[in-house]
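Sample entry was shown:
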Amino acid sequence: MSFRKVLRRAGGRLNEINWKNALRDYALIVVGAAVGSFGLVAFLVPFKIAPGGIGGLATALHHLLGFPVGVTMLAFNVPLFLVGIRFLGGGFGVRTVVGMVLYSVFTDLLDLVVNLGPLTTDKLMAAVYGAVLLGLGLGLVFRGGGSTGGTDIPARVLSRYTGLSTGISFLFFDAAIIFFAGFVFESLDLVLYGFGALFVSIKVIDVVLEGFGYARAALIVTEVPDIVYYQIMAGLNRGATRLPAEGMYTGEGKSLIYCVVGRREVQRLKKLVRAADPKAFMTITDVHEVLGYGFRHRGSA
């Protein structure tokens, strides 16, 4: 087979993969926008819970002035989108527009057309389930490479031109919206519910984007690395990496062993290391993805 045919075949396969990935991404954006708007309409808006963001601002204005939530979100997101292009460049793309529009359309569709009312009478349950669904929906949109607009645009602008971290900038705008909603509704409880819902939704977004830590990474400082490694290899059938180290206080030479194990193997690892070296110093951290022999591939976002 000629080199040109090989390139042509490889290019066709790459185009097919890109087409499938784009289709998957847009499907995630559509489903995510629907799920997020469902959480907003069925749980958060009826109880006046504003979990930050443009959705929270639209919730407050809906109860204050009677404006439709979806239309209000779109009315704020369009100029914010233009501001983002002006100050941050045109990297937002079509997927941001799709996510932004669908999120607003689904919200008013469920609220005004379907007339979906609150699915619970308990405000705490509404805050929890609304935040979980909102975080799940936004996480799916982000995983598809899209965005629903909102405070992430002014937060990124503020971060770029003030030197503040992006996280602090997000918190600044979201906190301002939550306090504004509390002022409008004259309720400190709703401020607390808003911050609680914001925290839950952020954690759910993190889980959707990164997943639960399905593996653990262990750093083991020991003076008997050969014995420790033998225990790990024999007891868990796991490999490890040995690095030279030096105690900063004592100046004595030590060894640093790096090992990745499954979540269910952590307790076994602790016992094995303790048996090999009772004086070993060990730290264990979450690992969201492992690429290599012995671990399954989780796929890309």
User: Anything to note?
Assistant: The chain has two domains: 3-210, 215-287. The CA atoms of residues 36 and 137 lie 4 Å apart.
